């Protein structure tokens, strides 16, 4: 059994990073949250744009995502900042995250008397929370506590030929050791759902997989749009991908060959060990944030044409099989798997190399996106703000 | 999914009617498929793009990874570049 060195949280989950996370419950508190974060180095804040004027499933999804990020085991302590009149309130968010037992504080700007006092108050709370984090130490943990998010972006034909199936090998290795993986981006399962449905651990899960993909396609058609208008994207086409189905068949290879044990909604906690499917958009930032909210501690991201992005709380390992990309965007790439396409290595060897890189990144080796300061953020919106 | 690499082209399933280049390949190059068929490329094929390894009739299905990835919009001669100029999604985007 492989092991990693992680931070064991109050509820038994294991983090591979030790962040103090500052969450504005509404966009109106985002500036204060950012200023507090600047005053307290090593804290991270979420530049979230919503929290008011949201209804129904859209409100629920935004709440679940923000709460899920606070609960993510890479986060050791949380500061929630609200304004005081929004519908996504700081106290409700704090109450939900507090179930994890981690150190947490919250306040509203209305109660502090303006921007300056709110920043001062927040800075004081953030410094207290940070001193609690300093006492946390890494201990040796078996790898079955790990949840790996699987992502691809800027795909070209090398993604489906090599980078995705190699990541699939790594995902299967993790699942075989009792760990978990999340496969997502529902829009990029269209045309390949019959393969995924057959891999459901039970007929019920198979049916859920088919329904998730069908409902996604119906949602797009309901907008009066044709998904084929955006998929494949122009960069995918330049890279040799011709149709949505071809892209999807390549995308799902990063989920390896494991049985699919569960289907969850965007940002819903992972409930079972093994490979889980999460419903999400194919937008790379939104889907990575969804997986982080579902509990992924690390994300492995394959790219063809190259993509630099990261997340505020999870390291994002970049993997490419495109030699030009590996050279041109060398500073953004963590693992090059393209030697397989030159016949010099096997898919299994490349998969094992990715798995080893995942483990070393878990053990505090920073990935390219972390070194370069990438902390992009987005939530999958289901409805317009009203 | 493992592929067979020969002559700078990747071949997946025996049922496929396209292969994918791993290097740019020039018009006139002869490629041997894993089943031993010799194919002369009728045009330059860019890196990571597809070419036909069988004759495909207009309306016929394009198969890669052993699965359908689209439909031919015209007859495609063996050894041709296969991409958005002669293939569309076989998925009806408007169906419910």
Topology diagram in text:
The complex is a heterodimer of chains A (386) and B (96).
Chain A: E1 3-8, E2 14-15, E3 19-24, H1 30-39, E4 43-45, H2 56-71, E5 75-82, H3 90-98, E6 104-108, H4 109-112, H5 115-134, E7 139-142, E8 147-153, H6 157-176, E9 180-183, H7 193-198, H8 203-222, H9 234-238, H10 244-251, E10 260-264, E11 274-278, H11 284-294, E12 298-303, E13 316-320, H12 323-328, E14 335-336, H13 347-362, H14 368-371
Parallel strand pairs in A: 3-4, 3-5, 5-6, 8-9, 8-12, 9-11, 10-11, 12-13, 13-14
Antiparallel strand pairs in A: 1-2, 1-7
Chain B: E1 4-6, E2 9-11, E3 18-21, E4 30-32, E5 38-40, E6 50-52, E7 61-64, E8 67-72, E9 81-82, E10 87-88
Antiparallel strand pairs in B: 1-2, 2-3, 3-6, 4-5, 6-9, 7-8, 8-10
Overview of this protein structure:
Chain A has helices at 30-39, 56-71, 90-98, 109-112, 115-134, 157-176, 193-198, 203-222, 234-238, 244-251, 284-294, 323-328, 347-362, 368-371, and strands at residues 3-8, 14-15, 19-24, 43-45, 75-82, 104-108, 139-142, 147-153, 180-183, 260-264, 274-278, 298-303, 316-320, 335-336. Chain A is an alpha/beta fold and 386 residues long. In chain A, β8 (147-153), α6 (157-176) and β9 (180-183) form a beta-alpha-beta unit. In chain A, the strands form 3 sheets. In chain A, strands 10-11-9-8-12-13-14 form a 7-stranded parallel sheet, sandwiched between helices. In chain A, strands 4-3-5-6 form a 4-stranded parallel sheet, sandwiched between helices. In chain B, β1 and β2 form a beta hairpin. The radius of gyration of chain B is 13 Å and the shape is globular. The A-B interface holds A 156-158, 160-161, 165, 190-192, 195, 217-218, 220-221, 226-228, 237, 239-240, 242-246, 249-250, 253, 304, 322, 341-343, 347 and B 1-3, 5, 10, 20, 22, 46-50, 62, 64-65, 67-70, 82-84, 87-91, 93-96.
